[in-house]
Design brief:
Rossmann fold; 2 domains; 6-stranded mixed β-sheet; 12 strands
Length: 392
Amino acid sequence: MRKWMILLTVLALALGLAACEKATPTPTEAPAMTEEAPKATEAPAMTEEAPKATEEPTEAAEEGEMPDCASPDVLCVGLVTDVGEIDDKSFNQSAWEGVLKAKEELGAYVDYIETKDPKDYEANIRLFAENGFDVIVTVGFALGEATQTMAKEFPEVYFIGVDQFQAWAVDDDTGNDLPNVAGLIFHEDRAGFLAGALAGMITKTNKIAGVLGTDLVPPVKAFGTGYINGAKYVNENVEAKVIYHPGGLDVAFTDPEWGAATARQLIDQGYDVIFGAGGKTGNGALIEVAEAAKAGKEVYCIGVDTDQWYTVPEARPCLVTSAMKLITPGVFDLIKMAKEGNFPAGNYYGGVGLAPFHDFEDAIPQEVKDKLEEIRKGLEAGEIPTGWPIEE
């Protein structure tokens, strides 16, 4: 919709002005070697009406004329990003593609708001809720508190919090339950473990590394922990380390220059497999490794969240696979369940796995592929510990 449509309530009280902008990320393809998400449970009741909007969003998409979202015959789905931006080619983009699938397959009206400042999280969510949206997807660990606050204020709206663990779902206090919130979470440690196992088997220097976003975000740290332990599981002689961005949530995922510089240093130190995980920061690392590969160095890189063969084609010279969280199907499935009335409040696990090897398919020995499949089954069965969560 045009941006002024979603801001109408706000700007009628203020200036009556608006601008419009549009973003449509590129869809990805289906992954290989993955786990499926479990089934859902129950749907929450729809009780109260939403109050009026009071603040302006950071940035909104343009997705055609907004229908009457309050009508029971219309499904309206809004998405609020973290500061990583909608076209980050991994995390936010994967969630948006799940929303776009709801538009294509469920006939939903969809829109997004790009957050520029973390202080705007609640205001951006509120704009969708006050305009009668049925489902609101909030993307990222950092939006967890704002999502729960808005869910309490708008109990008739379904909220999908990507990477937002719902602690209330596992405690004994039923008084803090939020029947309209589902946390779409993943076993990042397992995906990282598989990536590390691959790295540990293909390294020639016995030195592998990861360039990651901030360790203030548990899923990122789970990726890193799994990566190191997966490498050591298959190669006891490997030197494995991960380097986390030193900045806060406002910059840790939008710093490709730091990612590239860190990857360059690692390559100079003899690390020949590098895992890039952290939005545009991780993408910077991947592209730097690809440049080294094009220059003749025998180095590999591993992407994250989605199959980055498609979203970061510049990394193809080194991109052997990606450690994927199946965010797109997870978001779509939860929207569909909300529409059908069987919304799974609480924690909902999406699938994880490795993407196809693409141009490196023939370069990966069959025994390596067989070992990865053995490990995948062991992880899924709970027979192989990943080292996560870290015991204090």
